Each structure stands twice: as C-alpha cells, then as structure tokens.
Amino acid sequence: MGKITVETxxxxxxxxxxxxxFGDARGYxxxxxxxxxxxxxxxxxxxxxxNQSASKQGVLRGLHFQKNFPQDKLVRCINGEVFDxxxxxxxxxxxxxxxxxxxxxxxxxxxxxxxxxxAHGFYVISEYAEFAxxxxxxxxxxxxxxxxxxxxxxxxxxxxxEGAELNLSERDTKWGGFKEF
Length: 181
Known about the structure:
181 residues; dTDP-4-dehydrorhamnose 3,5-epimerase activity; dTDP-4-dehydrorhamnose 3,5-epimerase
C-alpha cells in the first residue's frame, strides 16, 4: 500500500482515504484510485460509473440512496470544500440511523468511501465546489429514495455558512423523515 492512508470511522464500513501527494515547484501528482491499494485496505469494489457535479455555496444535495440497486460510492471534492454525510440505513446494524460527516476539499484531498446501505449527501461550504464520485452500480432514477436533510431523528449537524442562502432542489424538500423510512 503506502500510496493511501485509510481511516476507519465510528460507523463500520465508512472510510476516509487520504492519498499520498507528490509535489514540487511544478505542482502535484496523486493517485486517486488504485484497485490494488483499495483491495489491500478492504475496499474490494468494482466501480462502473463516474459522476461529477458543480454547485454554489449553500447548495445541499441529499440525503439520497438507491432502494433496489444500492451503490458503493467513493467521493471527493476536486474544487472548493464540502461537508459530506453518510447515514447508516443497514437494518440490524448497531449504528442504524446514525450519521457521520467529513470535510472534503481540494486542499485536503481526502476521499470518503460509503458502502451500500447508506444515504448520502453533501453541503457546499466554499463559494463554489466541484464534486466527483465513483459508483459501483449505475444510477436508476426510478429507484431513488431520500431522507429529509434536517430530520431531527437523524440529527446531522450541518456546518451551514452564516449569511449563505440554503439551496435545495425541489425533490430534496419533499423527502420524508427517518421514522417514515
């Protein structure tokens, strides 16, 4: 291994990955994904789709999941900074209904691995952010589910930027809470 550092989280299965960055006066180089390193770290997943989004400060996307075609995700922020959240939806898990959040930024270059069975969302802290993620299954729009971003039963502590207008899609304003899930 050696090209990545993997931190386990208090919720089993979630991992924060920091790649080794090689920098000099010209800039930097890093491997964002190497199957051998990830398998050695316990992440043996075949990714089939890459996605990228751009958002302004105050945008909150989530909390989303696929019902019948769940996805493992490897996410990172390639420009700006976001607060990324995963909520454990694995029935029978000792952390069922619990959440974990991590700041991902172009500066810290951290990545977040979220296995199947989690709802996922992020909030844009910087003025602008570009967010990239690898998925282990294809997106099926008719299969999407979601949870209310501010459900008190989940209790995510979003680091909302003072003075920034919260910006949600219409769809994200209509999800139900954890109890209804």
